[in-house]
Design brief:
- This protein is of the alpha+beta class and 129 residues long.
- The chain has a domain at 3-70.
- 17% of the residues lie in helices and 21% in strands.
- The protein is built from 3 helices and 6 strands, in the order E-E-E-H-E-H-H-E-E.
- Strand 5 (100-102) and strand 6 form a beta hairpin.
- It is extended, with a radius of gyration of 22 Å.
Length: 129
């Protein structure tokens, strides 16, 4: 997981630094790299901030674009991950995604999807029965 973090006041948009935290190895058990965006007008404009102080040194821990970004793996073929997902959700088969289909008059309708009994997908206990 990657993140962009702004150190500053979100209401006044005064900013002391913007960080890009990047997972270089596509492994949730490893540490992420910390990269400090340069204090430039382009960066300030992109993030809609006003730099009030150059508080942090220019740090680049990521040497380049990570391999998992350039050559992403197809996670749909990772059967162990799908088995874990099904076990956590308590379903034999995950529901199909609804896809639009055109009718004879040219309007799109959603195809019917498989129904899941209430509560089976509620793995965090957030839904009421």
């Amino acid at each position: 997981m990657n993140a962009t973090v702004m150190h500053g006041n979100s209401l006044t948009r005064e900013c002391y630094g913007i960080f890009f935290i990047q997972n270089d190895y596509d492994d949730h058990m490893l540490y992420s790299s910390l990269n400090v965006f340069p204090y430039t007008e382009n960066i300030a404009e992109h993030f809609a901030v006003k730099f009030v102080e150059e508080k942090y040194p220019h740090i680049i821990q990521t040497p380049g674009i990570p391999k998992h970004i350039i050559e992403p793996r197809d996670r749909t073929k990772d059967e162990m991950a799908w088995e874990l997902t099904r076990a956590l959700c308590g379903v034999e088969k995950l529901p199909e995604v609804q896809t639009p289909r055109s009718t004879s008059n040219g309007q799109e309708q959603l195809q019917e999807k498989e129904e899941i009994p209430a509560g089976q997908m509620d793995i965090f206990g957030l839904l009421e029965n």
